[in-house]
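Quick illustration, no need to memorize.
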Amino acid sequence: MGRIAGVTAAETRERLLRAAAEVFARRGYDGTRVADIAAAAGVSNGALYAHFGSKAELLVAALRAHGPQLLARLFAADPDRPITELLAVVGRGLPRRRDAHGYLIVEALVAARRDEDVARPMRDYVGERADRLTGLVRAAQNDGEVDGTLSPDALSHFCLLLAMGSALVTPDLHRVDDGEWAALLARLVAALAPSGTAAQPSAPAGTAARPSAPAGPRHGGAGTTAQRGAPR
């Protein structure tokens, strides 16, 4: 079972990443062998190692390709949407059950605590996510959406803790009422507004309602869409 006829190297790589995401999520990092992933992808072990140097490298690559990316999709769909609203939409979904790929982050975080080969690429992965969130927070501060006295690094770290922690505290372990959770998030988002700014009500889940735009144009300034960078 070597390279599949008519399949490009890029297609083989994507096949391996998809198989890795599914197998790691189902069996866990320690319970998965390289041979399991190669078999699920329909290629040989040699073909797998032609693309990835180790199981640890493959785990983090699968996380990058198939891990949670809701914020990136929302941003791509509406890059002018207020950043605080994007974060609120993502936050409202955190307590809900997610698909198997959403548990990749759990496997990667647990493996990183025991295996330095996983910890090294995971530090890069988490650092990149934090940097993107920090950039979004700074853009929101420049646009007048978020209090400029708040630390962008601290706020992005808080968002990471919520997102990654939600993968561990699943609804079968502890459940919260959707309405109560949304009300709490609305209060938190309102607290991020600059001092003296009237808080806008958070739009219900699934709506496209937007708060009033801050004073001044949203084009050409330091916080414009072009300079935010698409999150992942």
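The longest helix spans residues 116-142.
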